[in-house]
Amino acid sequence: MSIINVLNISKQFGEVQAVDNLSFDVRPGEIFGLLGPNGAGKTTSIRMILDIFEPDSGEISVLNGPMTEEKKNHIGYLPEERGLYQDIPLERCLTFLASLKGMEPKDIHSQMTDYLKRFELYEYRGKKVKELSKGMQQKAQLISTLIHDPEIVIIDEPFTSLDPVNTEMVKDMLEMKRDEGKAIIMSTHQMNQVEELCDRILLIDHGKRVLYGTLGEIQNQFSSKDIMVTPLTELPDAIDGVREIKKLNGRFRLILAEDAAPNQILKNLINQGVELTEFEIAVPPLNEIFIQVVQKKGGADND
Amino acid sequence: MTKIWQIIKHEYLRHVLEKKFLISLLSLPIMVVVMFGVAIIVILFSIDDTPVGYIDQPGILTQAYEREQDSFFNPKIDFLSYEDKAQAQTALESEEIQAYYIIPENYSSTLLVELYYLDEPDSDVQSQFDQYMRQNLDTLQGLDPQVINRLENGTQITIADLDGEREMGQDQWYLVFTPFVLGLMFFFVVMTSGGYLSQAVVEEKENRTMEIVITSVSPNQLMTGKIIGNIALGLTQLLAWLLFGWIGIKVAGRVWPVVQDFSLSTEYILIALLAMVPAFLMVAALMAAIGATMTETSESQQISGLFSITMMIPYYLASPIMMNPSGAIATALTFFPFTAPITIMLRMALTVMPQWQLILAIGIIWLFAIFAIWFAGRAFRMGMLRYGKKLSLKEIFRKEIRA
Questions:
Q1: Which residues contact A187 (CB under 8 A, 6 or more apart)?
Q2: Closest-CA residue of chain A to B205
């Protein structure tokens, strides 16, 4: 079922334990968020999957077995440290990188034309890469990641340097790839994008797995018993079962007492004659979960 | 294999299509043409074909002066006969002639002539008069025909080795000249393609393309492709220069006929290739390794400068090598892979190298070439993803890395 299977991998660089007994799997047709603070071991894990580094211990299976040269043709990688050949025209640069993925010249041409048009780079195809803006280079790099229609797409911070319009376009493209059944591993610090796009996530810190599961499962795991309400009428000063009321921009956060249940609170509010436009069990934003988890572990170290 | 081919093509084209390459390709022939041009202009300005006078008291010069080969830089001089010294002196002062000779009555016993001039005529004028005299020697009474023959034709020294396989005549000066030129060409080609190679690797690290490339091909494929691509680049340059050289010889042959006899033995070419090819591979591989271990282009250029200094050693020591081509210095440089190709070519031109030395020296170069490729492979795999951090020699040898 899974297209990538990582089992108990560890990697040490000198004294530093970059990855520590890490396991996860990635399935076709999902966007998998690989999250963690700087220096947590994300890039090292990705490089081990790509066979750039060999793990000290553990096993990695990609497309049903160990990595081979042939399998590299079915992987698209957008590294964190980005770069294209600066001194040659965009078209030649993309053609070369696509040919290294084993594509036939005629396929390269048609695919490239298609992508260049879609990313609004077609008029710039004859320009040297260094003459393109940062955002354009970013889009060009995405083309080289996707042009060979890879089964596995690994992208590191895909949205940096992109304006909101291009960000939406890239998101649409990633969702389209997911719907085609491709497996996408996305590493990013933009938690709002993770919330919008990712089906499952893995949060690592100091090389260890900290959180792993679907977005919903994880948010549930961290949801407090707080309730968000937006009343039309005044809220009473005291509500049965509510320990504290916090006002936030016209909304209220109700912090419940130990033994209170949300259903009971709703009943109490209605009984007290409060009219509501919103009653919601507060789901903590991923951003908060991230900070909470990482800080509890003793803070992030830097790259 | 197709991927290696793509890399070769990419490496080759990205440089060949650049202006920089064309400039470096043309710079050497242009430099040579300019140098020769200047030399030719200087010679042209110094040529003086004003006639030369003579007073032939014993009446030796009965046959008219004939020149065997007329050349552009040494035009035929006309010799005008005068009755007496006063006439000749007037002609000299009115610049009708540039000098005059007096062949005295007692020439057959003294064999001395007198030369009068205002500005000394150049050596060619004197040698032409010499030739004129020789052509008329048989009119001299009492000279042995053998002596006349010797005087007319001069000496020809030919040195031959003991088994008579090789000889060298004094007019085959180009045999000494050739290894110098070939060596210089070899040096330039190796340094240019080596330079391109380390630059290509460092650039790929600097602009971070490396990571994408090695998730598409294996490090060995990448290194092989790069080395072959850049060697092809160097060979393109070499071929272009040889072509220029050939055109140069053809053109120069019209002016200096001796150049037209230029040729090299197959044996010489074969041994030169056997020594140069692995040396080329060795330097190329080491340059790739430097590119992989260094983090900035400028650093890699400094290190490659060390290679070029080492390779130039036979030129610094050219005079002791030529004085004693089988001496200690020449022999030592033969067994050091960086200096071996040029030293071998020099020694082969000047002496007969013992066979065991030749075999050992070429063996050493091949061995070093293989080692360099192995070393580069390791350095490459370890260094390619290091950004901003140099790879130390110790690490390359010690660390366990992925094959």
A1: A33, A34, A35, A42, A43, A46, A80, A154, A155, A156, A157
A2: A83
Query: Is residue B109 predicted with pLDDT exceeding 70?
Result: yes
Neighboring chain B residues of A144 at a CB cutoff of 8 Å:
212
What is the Cα A61 distance to its own chain's centre?
21
Residue listed under structure tokens 């490396």: B210
d(CA A53, CA A49): 8
Q: What share of chain B is helix, strand, coil (3-state, %, to 5)?
A: 65, 5, 30
Residue A184 scores a pLDDT above 90 = yes
Report the pLDDT value the prediction gives residue B403, as an integer from 0 to 100: 36
pLDDT for the residue numbered B394: 66
- pTM for the full model? 0.72
Question: Is A229 in contact with A254 (CB distance < 8 Å)?
Answer: yes
> Does the beta-carbon distance from B208 to A82 stay under 8 Å?
yes
A147-177: string of b/e by CB count within 10 Å (b at 16+)?
Answer: bbebbbbbbbbbbebbeeebbebbbebbeeb
Task: Give the Cα separation of A119 and B166 in Å (integer).
Answer: 71
- Provide the Cα torsion A48, A49, A51, A54; round to 10°: 30
- Please give the sequence-ordered ranges of beta strands (E in DSSP) within B107-222, or none if there are none: 114-117, 158-160, 167-169
Both structure tokens of B207: 């602009």
Calculate mean pLDDT across residues B223-251: 84
Please indicate whether, in this complex, the C-beta atoms of B213 and A83 are within 8 angstroms of each other.
no
Identify which has the larger pLDDT, B183 or B367.
B367
What does residue A245 show for φ and ψ, rounded to 5 degrees? -120, 125
Contact A134, A161 (CB under 8 A): yes
* pLDDT-wise least confident of A31-35, B184-188, B222-226: B184-188
User: Which tens digits make up the pLDDT trace of A238-268?
Assistant: 888 888 888 888 788 888 887 888 888 888 8
- Of B274, B239, B286, residue with least CA distance to B344: B274
Q: Closest approach of chain A CAs to the CA of B4, in angstroms?
A: 9
Query: Under a CB-based contact definition with an 8 Å cutoff, are residues B326 and B346 in contact?
Result: no
SS3 B137: helix
Nearest to residue B308, comparing CAs of B187, B149, B155? B187
Q: What is the CA radius of gyration of chain A?
A: 24
Q: Which of B217, B221, B385 sits opposite A52 (nearest CB)?
A: B385
Q: How far apart are CA B344 and CA B276, in angstroms?
A: 10
Q: By CA distance, what is A148's nearest residue in B?
A: B216
ipTM: 0.77
Q: Given an 8 Å threshold on Cβ–Cβ distance, is B212 in contact with A101? A: no
Q: DSSP readout, B41-80? A: HHHHHH-----EEEEESS----SPP--S---SSSPPPPEE
B-proximal residues of A, 36-65, CB under 8 Å: 47, 50, 52-54
The band of A303, judged by pLDDT with boundaries at 50, 70 and 90, is very low
What CA–CA distance (Å, rounded) separates B380 from A131? 30
**What does the angle CA B183 – CA B187 – CA B192 come to, to the nearest 5 degrees?**
150
- pLDDT, position A147: 94
Q: For chain B, list residues whose CB is within 8 angstroms of any CB belonging to chain A.
A: 2-3, 6-7, 10, 14, 18, 206-209, 211-218, 221, 385, 387, 402
H-helix or E-strand containing B248?
helix B219-255
Residue B146: both structure tokens together: 């053998």
pLDDT of residue A286: 85
Contact A19, A4 (CB under 8 A): no
pLDDT band with cut points at 50, 70 and 90 for residue B385: low
Q: What is the DSSP string of B329-386?
A: HHHHHHTSTTTHHHHHHHHHHHSPPPHHHHHHHHHHHHHHHHHHHHHHHHHHHHHTT-
